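Collaborator request, handled under Task 6.
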Amino acid sequence: MDQLIEALWRAGGSDLHISGGMVPKIRIEGQLQDLPGAPRLLPDQIDHLLAQILPTDQLDFCRSGQGDLDFSFGWRRTARIRGNLFRQRNSLAVAMRLMPQEIPTFDQLRLPESVRRFAQASQGLVLVSGPTGSGKSTTLASMIAWIAANQAKHVITIEDPIEYVHRHGRSVVNQRAVGEDAPSFPEALRSALREDPDVLLVGELRDLESIRVALTLAETGHLVFGTVHTNDAVQSIDRLVDVFPGDEQSQIRTQLGLSLTGVVYQRLLPRVGGGVVPAFEVMVVDSSLRNLIREGRTSQMRNQLLVGQAAGMMTLEQSLSELVQAGLVTHQDAVARSRHPADISRRRAY
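Structure tokens returned to the collaborator:
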């Protein structure tokens, strides 16, 4: 397994996929390809590889069909591996993501200034959204790393599993893994109320109880970061509200209107010349947006993003257009990732 991870690292890949009856595949710049020189693996060979990184009881848990397994571990003091082990066709398969040990800075991630300011907020809820593999975890890790280095705060992260490992710096950073350090996201969040936190990071806001406690924390003077899987910034708000029964949604909209500080939606695109580059949609919640949230008029919020550039807001299409104009991505790739492709400008000829 160590050799496979090393091959992934040397190839500059992000993900490693191992499944019975195929050559291991790696993802490079968003595209899956065979791992060069690797043989086709049989289920027994995969079991042997997995036994090198996971204890027997965890392997037996997945083999028995009781469920999937999320895990993470450090690799050679160079990177961390985040993985998911699951069954398919009566055998084990695994998907693993490689994350550098060093957390990228704001500049390295090309974060907009308005997104950087979210890390300086004193309280409220900040959502980072996007599809799987869009860099949400890395953006949040960069924010937490900045807070730890520059502010004297108590930071608690609740993750499943822990992805980036943070240094304390000026802050105290406690990282809790669901399933190891806490039984569940809701239980860890409720416990956080008694742990004197200033900042909390919730790996994913996906269940009613976690969202409810996160909103309470954001309303009571804490800065809360969380991720959601949505297709734009506005949809992130609807996603949280829709988790609740109909008779509670009005109250949740009111809480969101009071506590939401900002929403970041992001996508990764192939960079011209190699690599990837992020595009962002940014919502900086002001009084107009708070009213729209409380009244459930989220369909009108995109217009606020279009005219809110002075406050640091931008639509994904504005960000994509900037990347196209700078020659960093092709117009074709930009259009493929947009829900409003007509709003993306082509590169001007000089």
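The cover message to the collaborator said: "The domain at 106-343 is CATH 3.40.50.300 (Rossmann fold). The chain has two domains: 2-100, 106-343. Please let us know whether this matches your experimental observations."
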